[in-house]
Structures are given as C-alpha cells and as structure tokens.
Give the backbone structure.
Amino acid sequence: MQKETNETEDPRDEMKKAQKRFCSWAMTSAIIVAFVFLILDEKAIAKGLIMGTLFSIINFILLGRSIPMVLGQSVAKTRALGLTSILGRYAVLAIPLIVSNKSDTFNFIAVVVGIFSVQIVTIVDYTIIRRFFSR
C-alpha cells in the first residue's frame, strides 16, 4: 500500500530521516577531511575531527529523542525535562573537549570544529543544497 502524502507521515519518521541524512553527511565529510590530514601527517587534527564529529552526532540524536518527550507535558515538567536534556547534552559535549585539552593526541580546535559538524552540514543543506536542487 502506498503512502497518501507527506502530511500523513509521522513527524518522528521525518526527524529520523533528517537525522540520518545530516549525520551521514557530517561523518562522511569528517572522514574525507581527516583522510587529507592523515596524508599531511597531521594525525592529531584527523583524530580530533573524527572524535568531535562522533560526539556531535550523539548530541544531535539525543536532541531528537528529547523533543518528543516534552510534547504534551505540563509546563513544569517540560521545563524540567528540557533543562535535564540540555545539561545532559552539554555533559556529552564536554567529554571530547576535556579529553582533547588533556591529551596531545587530539587537536583541540579540530575537536571544536567536529562538534559543530552536524550544524555546519545542516546550514549547508538548507542554504546551498536545497536552493540549488529546488530550481
């Protein structure tokens, strides 16, 4: 049986598709750039970029899972769940920053760039790719 329209599709399915697309693009891009840095014998930058991107993906997935939890809740419960979600995701993002700051095997700046990789891919998708293919 064929789906009628996108309007009847579950919003969570759409979110999962977007997450899969953005996370796949972010990791693929990070692997390609990291490979270039490996060729240039910059292992710390390559490893930092990959680690930051992995934690960026984890953060994005956790964000996607927390949004449906707050829908339909009371204001007080929504605030508590939202705050817990933010603090938990910040704690997840602190892990690669602390590791890269304490270790010479990961480049701190590369980790920071990796942490923003999903956001960068999202911006590129909406500002460049969608405009180019919608014509």
Residues 12-133 form one domain. The chain has five helices and no strands.
